[in-house]
Amino acid sequence: MNDEIYIRRCIELAEKALGKTYPNPLVGSVIVYDDRIIGEGFHKKAGEPHAEINAINSIKEEDIHLIPESTIYVSLEPCAHFGKTPPCAMKIKELGFKKVVIGAMDSHDKVNGKGKKIITDAGIEAVSGVLEDECRQLNKRFFTYHERKRPFIILKWAESVDGFMDKDFQPYQISNALSKQFVHQMRSEEHAILVGKNTALHDNPSLTVRDVEGRNPIRILIDFNLEVSENSNIYNDEAETIIFNSVKNLEDKNLKFVKIRRENSINKILEKLYELHIQSVIIEGGRFTLQEFINQNIWDETLIFKNPNLNLDNGTKAPEFNFNPQKKEKLRDTEVLFFVNESLD
């Protein structure tokens, strides 16, 4: 039971860095001696120390001698390879912890049991699979990327009660200010955001984070014939931008033009995003692009913002999406429907 309490604390710590660690996973760590937490930490940013190292460094000088009699808890298997930082499994071995408790094993091919093996080969007791489902949910983006070889896909749109995304084919504010803030928070937490050509021409979106503090996602535009003007907001210098097209390959400062063929384009785009180490993407529009992902069943979660008091009568129809929501929330007069693609389990 205590193991679950401390792994849950690891998850709480890890969540503090949501959106900031890409392409690394979210990881929290707690060090316990005699049912007392003597150190804790989380991975804050790629290239910076991992959770285990931050937890070790947080131990007060008077408690350092307790390490050989302490248990270190970590939400994800300690790494076993040299990257921008040394392997955490080696540090745990070097300091000689009494025991290691792991939430979920790491399916990344550079780890995948190797971290735990280093620890057990050193004669340190290691237990894994504590709150495993919760730990995998914490890193759903990371696990989807490494196991499915594609980013975690989130579909998102707003619609009126009669199923339209705009009014008379012109932009229309469907959801409220609180919903907008929710969306910007969501953008700050995901690795990238994608729109099709029509949305870029129709709405001229910036696809940046504004109403909350946070990093801008990488912007992705599908524009085969490069019809969107380079004076559009999506081309400004506020965020890194990838343009999938059938005209040219070119890199220029924060712009990356990637040439692909139209045939089977969704899968080609996802393959390229995997190569670029992009772990999650919000598909924000428009209807045609969203419907392509739905029709090919390439999505993990969907959020629909519905205004139950708004009839628009005419305009762009919302995508056809015949699934039951897992939960519903109210953001004042906007209803948010949350869906999970259970057919992928």
From TrEMBL:
Pfam families: dCMP_cyt_deam_1, RibD_C. InterPro entries: APOBEC/CMP_deaminase_Zn-bd, CMP_dCMP_dom, Cytidine_deaminase-like, DHFR-like_dom_sf, Eubact_RibD, RibDG_C, Riboflavin_Biosynth_HTPR. One of its GO terms (biological process) is riboflavin biosynthetic process. Zn(2+) binds at residues 50, 79, 88. Keywords: Hydrolase, Metal-binding, Multifunctional enzyme, NADP, Oxidoreductase, Riboflavin biosynthesis, Zinc. NADP(+) binds at residues 158, 199. Its EC number is 3.5.4.26, 1.1.1.193. In the C-terminal section; belongs to the HTP reductase family. In the N-terminal section; belongs to the cytidine and deoxycytidylate deaminase family. Converts 2,5-diamino-6-(ribosylamino)-4(3h)-pyrimidinone 5'-phosphate into 5-amino-6-(ribosylamino)-2,4(1h,3h)-pyrimidinedione 5'-phosphate. This is Riboflavin biosynthesis protein RibD. It comes from Epilithonimonas hominis. The lineage of its organism: Bacteria, Pseudomonadati, Bacteroidota, Flavobacteriia, Flavobacteriales. The gene is ribD.
